[in-house]
Write a structure and sequence with these properties.
By secondary structure, the chain is an alpha+beta fold. The protein has three helices and seven strands; from the N terminus they run αβββββββαα. The longest helix has about 35 residues.
Amino acid sequence: MVGIIFVFAVFLVGMRLFGYELYTVMSGSMEPEYHVGSLIYVKTVDPATLNQGDVITFVADENNTVVTHRIAGIEYDNGALKFRTKGDANEVEDAVLVHNKNVLGVPVLQIPLLGYLAFYIQRPPGLYIALVVGTLLLAAVIAPTFNRGKEKTASKKEK
């Protein structure tokens, strides 16, 4: 159980140490490539290196909505690099061009369904539940080591 939690922690937190950001796919606009509820790992890239057909993750509006869509076209507007985007499952392109400064990166890994759990534990009450479960598991792992120390001390006193 501890091993599973360790691997889970590495996938949720540890990957950030290597420059990946994690996002949960919340809509079906990129089906079948990115499924609803998937956890995607996004790696920062230089927007100038992107090409038509690449999938990008970007901030879509002033509410900081994060979207992952495919580049349908590349344009320059007043000297600024901008991208026309479209979800694979959408019939029309997105209404607003994506400024290169809003590009967060490109998805490089997807783990189906794990996004639901990641999304849940990032907010109360899921955060509190995760903290309690983590603390209990840590206590369960550490507690036996305390008993071993007491048993050794007790056996030395008996001799």
